[in-house]
Amino acid sequence: MTFQSPLPDSKDVIDIMERVAAREIVPRFRHLAEHDINEKNPGDLVTTADIEAERALARELSPLVPESVVVGEEEAETNPSVLAALAGPRPVWLIDPLDGTNNFAHGKPCFAVIVALCQAGQTRAAWIHDPLGGVTAWAMEGEGAWIHEPGGLRRLSAAAPVPVSEMEGSLGSGLRKRLTAKREAGDTTTPARLVRYRCAGQEYLDLARGRLHFARYGGRLKPWDHAAGVLIHREAGGFGALTEGQAPYSPRSGVVRGTLLLAPDANTWDALHRVMNGV
């Protein structure tokens, strides 16, 4: 049996995320110089804000959990071997310092900071911070999901189950276009409204707040995008699984190819999966 380290005080993590975002991210929003923006791959941007925020988060989060290690998105992009820590026994701080970098770089106010604490391939605690909205959602295994907003603290609840034809959700461009065309042609079995924020963190916030019914992510599933959000959504009462065999999502294997679908419950998950498989 793997020893599980004590979880940190959530307030300490939130304080660090808010402080780092206020220092490294918000002042750079809409003030990036040309040399502050680079491409990791064609169309995949990284900014000075990503790099400096990751360094600061790694430095400040590590002391909260003894013997923990850090796996940050930017480090993992250049050194994928660090992802092996996700399957190991030590606690791992999994960091996406600036989710929605392309939005951020183009001055669009839709980005987030995502942190998960993982151990032995499982997500044990999760936090998503919206620097501009001033809100932070978090969850710990078995303790529900919560959000701290300007108006105070409240418990999160995923959207209630409704027929697929009444749902709003997030899909990639190809499937979104096909389902939209079917809807416009009179097919009333398809979802009512389809979006894509280009920021998984903000989409997970809206899933956990009940503002979106579902989201579907395909291709290369990166753990810093999904580990925290899946836990928060589940603790808010939602249901998520990989479409291949309906296996639960785990960050254990690092970056994997597959399709992840999140829905209000298992029955609506099945209904959505059938609709999406039919186009």
What does the secondary structure layout of this molecule look like, with pairings?
Blueprint: H1 10-25, E1 37-41, E2 44-47, H2 48-61, E3 69-72, H3 73-78, E4 92-99, H4 101-105, E5 112-119, E6 122-130, E7 135-140, E8 145-149, E9 152-155, E10 168-170, H5 173-184, E11 193-195, H6 200-208, E12 214-221, H7 223-235, E13 239-242, E14 256-263, H8 266-277
Parallel strand pairs: 3-4, 10-11, 10-12
Antiparallel strand pairs: 1-2, 4-5, 5-6, 6-7, 7-8, 8-9, 12-14, 13-14
Give a quick set of tags describing it:
31% helix, 279 residues, seven-stranded mixed β-sheet, Fructose-1,6-Bisphosphatase, Chain A, domain 1, alpha+beta, 8 helices, globular, D-Maltodextrin-Binding Protein, domain 2
Q: What does the overall shape look like?
A: globular
Structural class: alpha+beta
The largest beta-sheet arranges its strands as 3-4-5-6-7-8-9
Rounded to an integer in angstroms, the radius of gyration calculated over CA atoms is: 18 Å
Report the sheet-strand fraction: 25-35%
* Helical fraction: 25-40%
Which class of the largest domain in CATH terms? Alpha Beta
Q: Return the average pLDDT rounded to an integer.
A: 96
Span between termini: 44 Å
What does this structure look like?
There is one protein chain. This protein is α+β, with helices and mostly antiparallel strands and 279 residues long. It folds into 2 domains: 10-155, 2-Layer Sandwich (Fructose-1,6-Bisphosphatase, Chain A, domain 1); 164-277, D-Maltodextrin-Binding Protein, domain 2, CATH 3.40.190. 31% of the residues lie in helices and 28% in strands. It has 8 helices and 14 strands. The strands form 3 sheets. The chain has a 7-stranded mixed beta sheet, sandwiched between helices. It has a 5-stranded mixed beta sheet with strand order 11-10-12-14-13, with helices on both faces. Strand 5 and strand 6 form a beta hairpin. The longest helix has 16 residues, at 10-25. The chain starts with 9 loop residues before the first helix and ends with a helix. The model has no long low-confidence stretch (mean pLDDT 96).
